[in-house]
């Protein structure tokens, strides 16, 4: 493993190569300069002569109205981060149900990436319906050995490969939670792109839950920020806690502008990204086999969203460096960073297909994989 200085230098080299590349499946947020980001904000679909926001009015209130409309809920509240939004949602449900226990997957975001905040900050406790690397089943939810006040479902489950249940499975999961007298909360950071897999519009999906969290930067390309959506009474309660948690920010118009731009520009494109991801995944499986890689896995075989995992039997640094050389030498970025995955000797990465990847063909994928494998 590289030391800190070497890793910093490699990150700078990676970003420079990604930025200079003419061919890529997506663009990393690291690539944009301050000037470029400001220029994109100025092009956002909003009246630039309107007043800025003060403590959540104006453009922030307009964003909240737009999210509630898209999800078919009575109200929505803007939050500076998804971590804050979800902790507050779960805290509010614990107060309403009288039960501080939250049932969720151990690979979900609150368990892996929030510093034990559910217990440390909010005094909540968790139980796991399953530890398998998949969505839980209704039977597992029903078999949890103690009462729980809230069932949280991450849609899609990112760490397991951006996995979604089927529509029938999701409805059964919700019903299983309700039979346990639990509130249902959707961790929908990437819910926006789930409509293709479910074959249902956003209001029908969100309508299964008592509350829904959505992100503005993970799929929509915003600067940051999130929203909680649900009944008017519940959302008003979350606004009270937002202030207590320090989330009542004086001005947030840059985040709101970028979020509105994402809803206007990226949201309609997400179905095409999902379709393209499925083509890329199929061509990638064929290309890896043709290149003679001893073992590989594209997971899931048919992506549920426009993001999916790739597993290869090499050390992560070796694969990251191969992708870096490919970008520098050919001007094409296919794989980016790799991480350790599972047993020693295996590495995993995520592929994300957005607007730059729509022009790729199966032949392009085969050529890119061949060039990458030649540099391992």
Automatic annotation (TrEMBL):
- Record domain Aromatic amino acid beta-eliminating lyase/threonine aldolase: where: 53-286
What cofactor is needed? pyridoxal 5'-phosphate
Any keyword Ion transport?
no
Sorted alphabetically, the keyword list is: Pyridoxal phosphate
Extract the Pfam families matched here. Beta_elim_lyase
Answer whether the UniProt record assigns the keyword RNA-binding to this protein: no
Coiled-coil zones: none
Superkingdom classification of source: Bacteria
Which InterPro entries does this chain map to? ArAA_b-elim_lyase/Thr_aldolase, PyrdxlP-dep_Trfase, PyrdxlP-dep_Trfase_major, PyrdxlP-dep_Trfase_small
For this protein, the record's Gene3D superfamilies field holds: Aspartate Aminotransferase, domain 1 (3.90.1150.10), Type I PLP-dependent aspartate aminotransferase-like (Major domain) (3.40.640.10)
Q: Please give the family membership noted in the entry.
A: Belongs to the threonine aldolase family.
Q: What is this protein called?
A: Threonine aldolase
